[in-house]
Specification:
Length: 243
């Protein structure tokens, strides 16, 4: 089987949606005050600084350790992160809708409190089915997102055999890549996602092992942000499961 030499993913920088969602969740509100559709939510000022720090990290890598190409979610916050991070090292960027964030359907813009208050039947259905297989009306389950990621990984392995590829995406994408690449079970994935939050502009990467498989190299690494004077943030925001 063909395999990449290295695969990394950067979660987008802090967005204005992350900030608004944190405010709504901690304030006990039912709705998150975001005017844009999810695909159009931009980076915050802190998010732009984080993306610039990623760019300085990439530019400082030796040429043989630098990604050859970046594949990016088409959402504005990921594109802005990629444009800022890839400019200095000159890494080409491709957009791929299979990296977009999980679509929440009727749960969009609702906080956890808002779902329980306004859509109690959906909250009960999610509890019964479990987070991995629950598909909100008009939205996607985690299993749905995993299916499109399987397709993307197949294309990357075919088109970039022995190559180094950087992805720029969302929190759920990071978790599901671990599920797919490391052979996690549903229970292992859900327990891991429950106990961890992926920081904005953190780096998670896998390196090809002697067995010709991608093995985890690092997860949720933010040292490059601290080194470059950018503030690490871990808001779940519009990437998060609201139930």
């Amino acid at each position: 089987m063909t395999e990449l030499a290295w695969l990394g993913i950067v979660r987008h920088g802090e967005s204005t949606g992350n900030v608004a969602a944190l405010r709504a969740e901690t304030g006990g509100m039912e709705l998150i005050d975001i005017a844009e559709r999810d695909a159009d939510v931009p980076l915050s000022r802190t998010g732009r600084q984080q993306a610039e720090a990623v760019g300085r990290w990439l530019a400082a890598l030796p040429p043989d350790e630098r990604p050859e190409v970046a594949v990016v979610s088409p959402y504005l916050r990921t594109v802005q992160t990629a444009e800022s991070a890839l400019r200095a090292p000159g890494i080409p960027m491709l957009r791929d809708e299979r990296l977009r964030d999980r679509e929440l359907g009727v749960l969009d813009l609702l906080t956890a409190h808002g779902v329980r208050t306004r859509l109690p039947a959906e909250a009960e259905r999610r509890d019964r089915l479990g987070k991995f297989y629950y598909r909100p009306p008009g939205g996607e389950s985690w299993a749905d997102v995993a299916l499109r990621l399987r397709s993307l990984l197949g294309d990357l392995r075919r088109d970039h055999e022995d190559g180094r590829v950087l992805l720029v995406g969302h929190e759920a994408i990071v978790f599901l890549l671990r599920y797919l690449l490391e052979g996690l079970t549903e229970a292992e994935l859900m327990a891991f996602a429950h106990d961890n939050t992926v920081a904005n502009c953190s780096i998670t990467s896998w390196l090809r092992s002697d067995e010709k498989r991608l093995s985890l190299l690092e997860f949720n690494q933010v040292e490059h942000l601290r080194r470059e004077g950018a503030t690490p943030t871990q808001e779940e925001g519009v990437d998060a499961e609201p139930v």
